[in-house]
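thread: overnight batch results

M.L. [08:02]
morning all. the overnight job finished for the chain we discussed friday. pasting input first so we're all looking at the same thing
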Amino acid sequence: MRPLTPLLLLGALTLGACAKDKDDEQAASGAPRVVTGAQTVLVTEAPFAETVDATALVSGRPGHIAVLSAPGAARIAAVHAMVGQRVAAGAALVELDQVAFRAASQSADAAQGAAEQNLLRQQRLAEAGIAPRRDVELAVAELAAATAAAETARRQSELSVLRSPIAGIVTRVTATLGATADPAQALVQVTDGSALDLVFSLMPAQAARVRRGARVALFDDQRAGAVVIGAATIVAVGGAVDSATRSMIVRAELAHAGRILQIGETLNARIAVGERAHAIVVPLEALVPDGEGFKVFVVDASGMAHARAVVVGGRTDTLGEIVDGLKTGERVVTYGAYGMDDSVKVAPASPAATPAASSPATPAATRAPDAK
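M.L. [08:03]
and the structure it wrote out:
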């Protein structure tokens, strides 16, 4: 770039000095600053639903989940289930080694038969006066114990093939072919896919605002204007804080869904925590942070904007509820509120000059021209 000649430099300095003098004269005249391009709205009353945003985990409903384990220690001979598989009621999921169960059942049956024969013998001896009645009573007790043992052995033999008690989806499999099953170990879990709940982990302050019966809207994502894909109702709010996550469990019952929900998937949810039929609301862009609170710019009849502190209650993704500081019929600045000063004159944007909502810019502040 060529350097400025002394003449051009002198001219630029002269113009700058003139512009500065003009600004000083305008400031001295007391003319109000004018903000151009700002947008305003009237403060109105409207129904307002305060919400809490949360992440929901799709889960089976209590009472509709079957957890199966081995009736006794035994080797796992076959595994027929895999996670995600749909199974019918009665379907075989895991088979245990049958040898031990059959042997136990046969031994118990033999013991029951021997107890029956002993009771008959003791009864004949007692009738002949050879044995006391006490021996008969002992034989009766022994037969009862042997019968119970035989029934338990037969039941364990039946349970050695783990069958699903409900129709549903296999949601967990821990059985390993050839391993020894522990009776305390859950080998397979089946969940009824037609009875689903939503589980939330909320901070205690959020959970304290949620009530049973509250409505829940479900979304695939958190974008503004996202389509609602389902609805649910809060059925339980946990009464204890998890020591590990410092959160509380809240459960909602799915009412309907616009698509098939998969057990274990996560959804975005909006829980209604308060509804008011007549609330003073303003767009969120009208709220300007002010210390620990908020302020808005109220435009009077002459077009002057005055900063005013307000108390904000609940908020949605587009609106804020004003608890104190505004009344219906007043006009507040929305687009252009950020960066605005107190006691400036607002020149609303014309429809053709309205900026795009997706990328608002702070309106420029100029001084009103001197009156001629």
